[in-house]
Amino acid sequence: PQYLTDGSNFAEANSIIVDNGSYYVAGSVGVGQNNISKAMVWKDGEVLYELTDGSSPADANSTIIFDDIVYTVGYEYDEIEDRDIPRLWIDEEALNLNCNSITGGRAYDLAIGTDETISVVGYSELEDINRAILWRNGTSSTFLGTSQVRDSYKYSITLKNMDTFEFYIAGTEETENGTYQARVWGSSGEFTRLEIEDSEVL
């Protein structure tokens, strides 16, 4: 295996992508005596970007390359506001994603269409409920889910058509009995429950 860190501190790799023969990994590494996680991007096994300075917990969950620019999403804890702030990094520049929330949120994955629209999925916490959310270009946001009183999360997005921006989003949503059910959302806004009997398990 390829080791990205020396094992002296906590570290994790959350996602990987290949572009023009190079591989990019998004993740985090703990720093200092308190092992505070710092958001990172590696390229071909070497540190490309230290997205945060390790003064507060942060994580990079996914990264993609578009027109030779590295786009990464994740979160960073804001000690002053006492909440997680969902973040989009363009190369090393950090942009806060509008989550319309006083209690924060996190970003997990992103996709970019041919019109350069950046779509990010994750969740935003509203009135103690975590709501699955889709951000477009960092500001506008759309909640997808069947309930405003139960938790839902989006973890991954993929494009079916980059020109018309048809997409699928995978995540989970809390049911009435308190369990969590796997879901797929489509660009039409409709959602599908993933059941063992009607899904092919690979």
How would you characterize the overall build of this protein?
- The chain is mainly beta and 202 residues long.
- 0% of the residues lie in helices and 60% in strands.
- It contains no helices and 16 strands.
- A four-stranded antiparallel sheet has the order 1-2-3-4, with no helix packed on it.
- β13 and β14 form a beta hairpin.
- It starts with 10 loop residues before the first strand and ends in a 9-residue tail after the last strand.
Features:
202 residues, mainly beta, 4-stranded antiparallel beta sheet, globular, disordered C terminus
Give the topology.
Blueprint: E1 11-19, E2 22-31, E3 36-43, E4 46-50, E5 58-66, E6 69-78, E7 83-90, E8 93-96, E9 105-112, E10 118-126, E11 129-136, E12 140-143, E13 152-161, E14 166-174, E15 180-186, E16 191-193
Antiparallel strand pairs: 1-2, 2-3, 3-4, 5-6, 6-7, 7-8, 9-10, 10-11, 11-12, 13-14, 14-15, 15-16
